[in-house]
Structures are given as C-alpha cells and as structure tokens.
Amino acid sequence: MFWLDWFFPIEMLVVGLSGGVATGKSTVSSVFRAHGVPIIDADLVARQVVVPGTSTYKSLRKEFGDEYFDDEHGGVLRRDKLGKLIFNNPEKRKVLNGITHPAIRWEMLKQFLTLLITGTKYIVFDTPLLFESGYDKWIGTTIVVWCDFEKEVDRMMKRDNISRADAESRIHAQMDIEEKKKRATIVLDNNGNIDELREKVKEVITKLDKSWKPYIFRVVFGLLLGVIPYYFFKYTRS
Q1: 37 near 129, Cβ under 8 Å?
Q2: pLDDT tens for each residue of the chain, 238 residues long
Q3: What residues form the membrane-spanning segments (predicted)?
Q4: DSSP letters spanning 46-88
Q5: Number of neighbouring beta carbons within 10 Å of residue 222
Q6: Inter-residue long-range contacts of 72-81, CB under 8 Å, 24+ positions, other chains counted
Q7: From CA 184, how far away is CA 234, in angstroms rounded?
Q8: In what order do the strands lie in the sheet with 141-146?
Q9: pTM of this prediction?
Q10: Radius of gyration (Cα) for the chain, nearest Å?
Q11: Contact 117/131 with Cβ under 8 angstroms?
Q12: What DSSP state is assigned to residue 175?
C-alpha cells in the first residue's frame, strides 16, 4: 500500500494474521483480543465502509444497481448475491475492488494511527488476503493458521451450511495454503482441537511480548513527533 512505503518502522509494530477459509483464523484472533492485543480486522472494515449512506455504498449502488441491495431491510448490501456475481467475473471483481479497496485502506490507516497514538505495543492485522494483497511486504511478523484440506472442507460445510463443491470452490479461489505457509514467519497447525490451538497462540503471544522491536519503533516515532513540529514551527516563523 502506497501510504506505507515510507513508513519503514511499521514492521516492528504490526503482526499479520492469515490462513485458509476455515482453518481457525477467527479463533486465533479472539485469543489475541482476549489478551488485550488490538485487532484491525480487514473483513470487519470491509463491512463498515459499505454501510448505507457512505460514499462507497453510493458508488456501489450506482455501479451495480438496486438489485444488489435489500431495501426491505434498510438498503443493506446483499453481499452473498454480489459475491456470486464477481466470483466468476474478473471484470466485475476489478470494478468492485476499485471502489472498495481505497476506502478499506483509508479506514485501516485511521485505525492504525489511532492505536499508535494510544501507545499499544503491537497490533494484529487480521486479513485472509495478507499475501495476495502484498501486505506482508511491510509487515515483519506474519502468522498463518492452517489445517488439512479435508478438515477445512468439513468445517466450512458445517459452518456455512454449503455443499462440498461450494466449499472446495471457495477454498481454491484463494492462494494455496502451502504457499502461505512458506511465506509466513510463524505457522500454527490447527489439525487438533480448539484448546490446543489456543495454547499455541498463547505461546506466540508470550514470544511477541518479549520482543524489543516495538520499543525501537516507539523511540523513532517519539523523536519524529518531537523533531518534525519543532523544525516546522522554527522555519515557518523565520
């Protein structure tokens, strides 16, 4: 993302979290949240920027038409219907991304800056498209949670009440989990039960809490906050 290219120390503060469609990413995120670690949830942000009344919502409605909005329930976006449209239509998907992605990035930036000011040690950036979108390039620590393909299919069928064919289709639409595992800094195996996964996440949190990198970021950021305003006022008054 262009607005992060110049912000080099960010990798010391942000931890990227990703995984497959139904591999346990939400569980991992919930454990971080329970330990007081702030989360920037890309899926949640994507929903927030398209609520009725926002500029992104208006642009989508103008582009795709009223049939993709439920006027009987406040005019909310029919995400499932729009999802089916763009799934096998690259051109429509490109149009959708062109409308929503700038708004999503801006909202995530605002959340990041807000958390930065509050003094949090590190932030977890939760997104299924961590690697596909290139976010991993500016994040120092990346976590991928995975499970075997059959387990993922079974979990997705039960969770979303869909057919095996639909589950497999959604899984294959994303980057292969093996490729994500290769790129990740930390890999969490979720082939066991939920309690085992939670314990693994707690171990990761313990390691992250011991890291000294966020403190370097704080020093750099503190110096910038002090030096930049000083020279700004110095030269604007001279």
Answers
A1: no
A2: 433 444 444 445 789 999 999 999 999 999 999 999 999 999 999 999 999 999 999 999 999 999 999 999 999 999 989 988 887 788 998 999 999 999 998 999 899 888 877 767 889 999 988 998 888 888 889 999 999 999 999 999 999 899 999 899 889 888 999 999 999 999 999 999 999 999 999 999 999 888 655 555 555 555 455 554 544 455 545 5
A3: 215-233
A4: HHHTTSTTSHHHHHHHHHH-GGGEEGGGTTEE-HHHHHHHHHT
A5: 10
A6: 76/51, 76/52, 77/50
A7: 45
A8: 39-41, 123-126, 14-19, 141-146, 186-189
A9: 0.80
A10: 20
A11: no
A12: P
Q: Residue holding tokens 């993922």?
A: 152
Tokens of 126: 């939760």
Beta-carbon contacts of residue 127 (< 8 Å; ≥ 6 apart): 16, 17, 18, 41, 42, 43, 133, 135
Provide φ and ψ at 124, rounded to 5°: -100, 125
Token duo for residue 177: 């989990």
